Amino acid sequence: MTHSTTRILVVDDETHLADLVATALRYEGFETAVAGDGRETAARVADFDPHLIVLDVMLPDASGIEVCRRLRGGGCRAPVVFLTARDATEDKVAGLTVGGDDYVTKPFSLEELVARVRAVLRRARPEHAGPALAFADLEIDEDAHEVRRAGVRIDLTPTEYKLLRYLLVNARRVLTKRQILDHVWEYDFNGNDGVVQTYISYLRRKVDTGRPPLIHTVPRVGYVLRAADGCGGADHGRARR
């Protein structure tokens, strides 16, 4: 992905802040648009088709969390970086729960925001896509950016996708929370590795519910992708050609 083709929608009812953020992102080479509330956001998503949305949590007609929920419900899969004046953990978790991919707490530096945006974009669209990766009945098609289990497509957010891919290419290897955080998020969340546990639970609901579990917890160590009996498919972590 080149910056010249990357569109970012900035949503904030503080016009001066929205314009400042949009200008900073344009300076970095991104194409930008702005919106001031939830209703305008829906319209701009439809006509601008952003690759990423920078979304303020406090909007005049709806919370950013509710706006994100509506966008996800309507099929929008663009990554979302929340801007929030709230520093409470429950607010951050709420944003991630509805499909957000990162958050930046106000006041913030423009350099920090740009770094977060770049990291989320890298997670959303890996630079080097390749053939399908498979383990047991789980398959990731990197060219199509799709995940299937037993032939059934599983809808994942960009962060969930990158987390599952990391587990898959390291199948049967126990990964610590710190390893996962460093590889998947590429930003240390101020040392808060609780986000890993949160996203593992999201993946389990989507990947393991109603099926033999593949994602396992190793107490006091981390997580591992393996078949329930400890034996996975012969293709684990390799590309099918």
From TrEMBL:
Residues 130-227 form the OmpR/PhoB-type domain. Keywords: DNA-binding, Phosphoprotein, Transcription, Transcription regulation, Two-component regulatory system. GO terms for biological process: regulation of DNA-templated transcription. The modification 4-aspartylphosphate is found at D56. GO terms for cellular component: cytosol; protein-DNA complex. It holds the Pfam family Response_reg. It comes from the Bacteria. This is Response regulator.
